[in-house]
Structure formats: structure tokens, C-alpha cells
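Just wondering, can you check both lines?
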Amino acid sequence: MSAHSHLVDRYLAVWNEPDAEARAAAVASLFTPDATYTDPLAAVRGHQEITAVVTGVRDTFPGHVLRRHGIVDGHHDVVRFGWELVAAEGGDPVVVGFDVAVCDPDGRVRVVHGFLDKVPTPV
């Protein structure tokens, strides 16, 4: 497994962690203290704010998990990958997107740019 694939697996595990304390610890382990996460719905900085965004998604979509969608591609300190949010028991994805992450020299994520390709239609 490449370093980029391993990073993506750790990243997705953060989003899929059901325990709030373990999730916060995973964010602190994976992201630099001043890391930023930006997507069309959020623009946050630091462990606490990133953890809040992840928790918000988990609260909005209970029983769902993020999984890889497509290939992981990377070079130097940059990795891009697709993901989809699906019910834990399977089925069609509710949300589909891709992220671009930039890492520091130690391999910790310092910037994430997220893009949403499919989002639920409000009822």
C-alpha cells in the first residue's frame, strides 16, 4: 500500500469513527494543529473545528460511512481521492465528492480542499 493510500485510509477512518473521544484523538493524530479544511459548506481551522465538522456530518447522516470512490492519486506532498457517503449496510451513495489534501514533511495533513459532486436534494 502506498503512503498516499495509507493516508486516505486514516482520513476516512476519522470520518467513520463513532466514538467522539477517539474521533478527536484521530483528528489530532492525522492533522497538524493549524490544519484547514474547506469545502462548499465549511471553512475551518484547527483540531477542534475540524472535529466539529466531522461530528456534524456524522450527526446529519447517522448510520452512514465514508468509503473510497475511484483511485487515490498523489505526488510529493499532495493526494487527491474520491469518496462516497453510503449507509453502513450498503446501497446508493447519498453524497459523492473528492478531496485534495496537502501534507507536511511528517505526513500529517495541513490542508484539505473538499469538493461535492452529489449532494442530497432538500425536502
In short: The beta strands are 31-39, 42-45, 64-75, 78-87, 95-103, 109-118. The longest strand covers residues 64-75. The chain has a mean pLDDT of 96. The chain has one domain: 3-118.
